[in-house]
Predict the structure.
Amino acid sequence: MEPTLLQTDVDPQVIADGVNLLWVLVATFLIFFMHAGFAMLEAGQVRSKNVANQLTKNLLTWSVGVAVFFLIGAAISGVVGGDGFSLTLAAENPNEWVDWLFGAVFAMTAATIVSGAVAGRAKLRAYVGYTFVLAAVIYPVVAGMGWGTAGPLTADGVLGAVIGAGFHDFAGGMIVHGMGGIAGLTAAWVLGPRMDRYNDDGSANVIPGHSLTFAVLGTLILAFGWYGFNVGTAATVFEVTDSGDLALASFATVGRVALTTTLAMACGAIGAGLVAWLKTGKVDTLYVANGLLAGLVGITAIPDTTAWWGAFVIGGIAGAQLPIVFEFVEDYLKIDDVCAVFPVHGSAGIIGTLLFPFVAAPGVVDSVGTAFAAQIAGVAVITVWTVAATAIVFGAFKAVGQARVSEEHERDGLDVSEHGVDTYPEFGQPDVATDGGHTEEIIRSDGGDPNDGRIKMVTAIVRPDRLGAIKQSLAEAGAPSLTVTNVSGRGSQPAKKGQWRGEEYTVDLHQKVKIECVVADIPAQEVVDAIREGAETGEPGDGKIFVMPVEGATQIRTGKTGPDAV
């Protein structure tokens, strides 16, 4: 008979420890990859002039936050959780740092949620300062209260002594996401809305983000990483029994966690899309994406206990509440939550956490009333602490005039004012010249017949999708050189209605391309004809072509002037 694994000389405890450590690290790396999702999701929902700022905040959230959580936050969490004060750097066993890293990626997830709520107007120093405090104190207190061995919200803490049951949050539906969403809402309230977000009569203006593609890509990356969040929290794969045998530990029910996570994700997208359709008659893409995330947030506190049908309920409700709560925050609270972090993370996390005893699988909950009371108490304590701490920190920055950028900087965009960069330089406006005018790039064009010895500039405002055909026509006409700028404007083309997160807005400035072609030895009319041939569709909005005289030209490399320079 062949020997079994346990009949060899290998210590079962070594196998269990090795597999468990490897699994926790894999889950940790998945959760870290969620930061790429947050970066894309948030960058897509802000204006193009604020993209670099949003990406920088995501980078610094991780960099500053994880260092602070290592030096300070983890120890604070241990004190609040009843484990005593112990600095992470003083760990006796190097593998203890695996557990710290797993906790750190949860902490940084809570921190980065806030950046989406305050996008477009928060000073970088204020946001980084808040990230420091969140990683050092705010989140560690919440994690210690709910996940410590004897934290106030655990069965062995104050809550257990008073109510008879502890607060249940398996993977951070409230401790991480609910806390992050509430913090983001509070910070956005303290900062105030972006300029032009609300009219004098209180009505809201829609400010669309610059890339729906980025937002959806970020959503899917987050959904992928979420399996590390939920399934990864079943951190103990194997355990060694008293008889010395290997047995499944938390992985004994890991299939339930994976199933409920997946079903809630799907139902969140369906619920949000359905409500958006009922409200506007259209299935809003961004609501579907945000709803998918809301479904994930809703199940995150309870994937280990929820019945399969409960995942449908939790996901559907979490997604359906999203458009309703966002509208309430925007229209009634007048809080400018740019990336909808509260309805996605805050309210969805609260709802999923509170519904724990009502959707639990048979035999999980002894007393629905007792369990529900514990959930209410936990949500209330975390909410009060998060609101108070966040308001104090951002309020302090606001009191000394360091919370948000100036009006001029907000108009220009935070990419330039905070970082000195332009995320999309090739699509930007012409550079400002020292004399207050604008520099115009003049490109040489070759071939053609004389143009009466004069220089002319042909300028065309056309549809962006016709650029390729126009370039081909110009090349065939012997004038391949041109300057292209992305612009927006209005003329005879009628205004259109657009939607951003289910809200309608008027699009009266249409995206166009401006083509400039300076010619000397080719007739301007030939260039006009070539552009018209490539640009015409026969519909309003095809654009216009202008021909203007040019006083002079100088070629920088050779110093030639006049027609010779062109």
Observations:
- The mean pLDDT is 89.
